[in-house]
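Thread title: Can someone regenerate the structure for this chain?

I was given the following input by a collaborator and told the matching structure tokens would be attached. They weren't. Posting the sequence so someone can regenerate them.
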Amino acid sequence: MQCIDSHNHLHFKEFDPDRNQVFSRARAAGVCGMLLVGIAPEDSRRALDMARMHGNQWAAVGIHPQMADTYTRADVMALDALAHDPKVVAVGETGFDLYRTPESIDLQREMFEAHIDLALRRSLPLIIHDRDGHEQTLKTLDGCRGWDAGGVFHCFSGDRAMALRVVEKGFFISIPGVITFKNAQMLKDALDAVPLERLLVETDCPYLAPVPFRSKRNEPAYMVHTLKVMAEIKGVSPEEMASITTQNFLGLFGLGLEDE
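Best answer:
Regenerated them for you:
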């Protein structure tokens, strides 16, 4: 099985003690590539530095919406200095988090609009973070030409109707380990509605480990469990699901795999 982790944070300090072993386990499990996603300026730089060190790893640069009261639009636009690097293939993660930081909603909107501007300027797709902010996320994309950038809703948490709207607009839906949880029926219904050619798979590690590792530190090797459940819902084999999501990833970001 060959698959690509479309959203992770292996550059986080949680992996400092055993990062090389995590990479080895990922390769052994069939993970042939990964996108390291930044959540702040220095964090984005770390993601890029790590992506430069390894083949078939790429970076996204952005400032997480939970940090909207710490950084400004100018900080987002300053990421342009990183975004020109060929290893940077996306802008984000960006969007709304009204679960943890609802009080900064106006600042989150300003930051999201700045990320959209940067993505359009660099012709890069967006990595969307949308937690309890579905209406605001869609409205901002509608109003700021955000759909024109293309991209993916990472760790998708909307319902079936929202999933259909997102893919109709040309975006991708990325499925995390949550799909393996017993209480994830809304996500399973959404996945059922999404065409295979619009699906990606992710870990969001170190978060959201799939069953049977739920509540433990997540890592890319665990993606096989997520893929298995996705395949069951879509009526294909895990190997076919892995192949489809890999090709979708490469197509979205305009990439090819290097021989390692």
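The chain is about 45% helix and 15% strand.
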